[in-house]
Amino acid sequence: MEQRYATSPEQIPGMGTAELRERYLAPALFADDEARAVYTHHDRVVLAGVRPVTTTVELPTFPEIRSEYFLEHREAGIVNVGGPGTIAVDGTTYELAHGSCLYVGRGAREVLLTSTDAGGEQGPARFYVVSAPAHTAYPTTLVRAGEGTVRELGDPLTSNRRTLNQYIHENGVRSCQVVMGVTTLHPGSMWNTMPAHTHDRRMEAYLYFDLPADARVVHLMGRPDETRHLLVGNEEAVISPSWSVHSGVGTAAYSFVWAMAGENQSFDDMDGFPIADMR
């Protein structure tokens, strides 16, 4: 588990490219047959990746969180961005196809992640985990790809027509504070989340996936009047503090997992910024 300490917007003007990437980009979450994690002190969220290829991988108890088991004091949302796989939670097995989501509540002791067709067209399962502290337990719940609350957003004339699947949210799968879903851009659209916004009440993280190996997303971050950018590849995650915008444009079609944690779970609680006012 890698530690990322919280930052303030006043630090952004002095950061070069290398420091921006070191603080906000998680480029190597997925490795064969192991779990890798980043602990961000923005709302104490953990981002983790698990790619089981030849064996089942258990979600480990990282010593940095000081718990007997990973979900002793936490909850998690898990999205499969790879080939088909299963997640067994305390003996109950859930099948996750590409793009499906499993919410795992506080108190689950054993979480086992397995690929069911590692040699198939989509390759091994790649489980992306977003976890936050939880004060109570909600039931472990599976949402298959396309079965969440679906919202159609944007316009092809502004190149941001997209389908947003809300999985874990206040009107869907219940949680303490994790909010999670998947957005897929329509053919010919490359912008996500434009106009950009912030929400001072919670942090957010993006994991870009289904992006060709030779393509990139130009991810905008920073204060609206002091923006910076990161070049992000397939299955790389970006940590977005509550004060930062989070928007991007790709050189090819892509999807992304968005996940939030913090003060509330209202998806529309945001402060938008017209592109003409950004710098």
Automatic annotation (TrEMBL):
Catalytic reaction list:
5-dehydro-4-deoxy-D-glucuronate = 3-deoxy-D-glycero-2,5-hexodiulosonate
- List, separated by semicolons, the cofactors it needs: Zn(2+)
Keywords assigned: Isomerase, Metal-binding, Zinc
Quick one: which residues bind Zn(2+)?
Answer: H197, H199, E204, H246
MF terms in GO: 4-deoxy-L-threo-5-hexosulose-uronate ketol-isomerase activity; zinc ion binding
Q: Show the SUPFAM superfamilies listed in the entry.
A: RmlC-like cupins (SSF51182)
Tell me its EC number(s), please: 5.3.1.17
Pathway stated in the Swiss-Prot or TrEMBL entry: Glycan metabolism; pectin degradation; 2-dehydro-3-deoxy-D-gluconate from pectin: step 4/5
**Keyword Isomerase attributed:** yes
Example GO BP: pectin catabolic process
Please share the entry's free-text remark on the cofactor.
Answer: Binds 1 zinc ion per subunit.
InterPro entries reported for this sequence: KduI, KduI/IolB_isomerase, KduI_N, RmlC-like_jellyroll, RmlC_Cupin_sf
Q: Organism's domain of life? A: Bacteria
Answer yes or no on keyword Cytoplasm.
no
The entry's family comment says: Belongs to the KduI family.
Cross-referenced HAMAP family: KduI (MF_00687)
Q: What does this protein do?
A: Catalyzes the isomerization of 5-dehydro-4-deoxy-D-glucuronate to 3-deoxy-D-glycero-2,5-hexodiulosonate.
Q: What name has this protein been given in UniProt?
A: 4-deoxy-L-threo-5-hexosulose-uronate ketol-isomerase
- Organism of this sequence: Georgenia muralis
Show the taxonomic lineage. Answer: Bacteria, Bacillati, Actinomycetota, Actinomycetes, Micrococcales
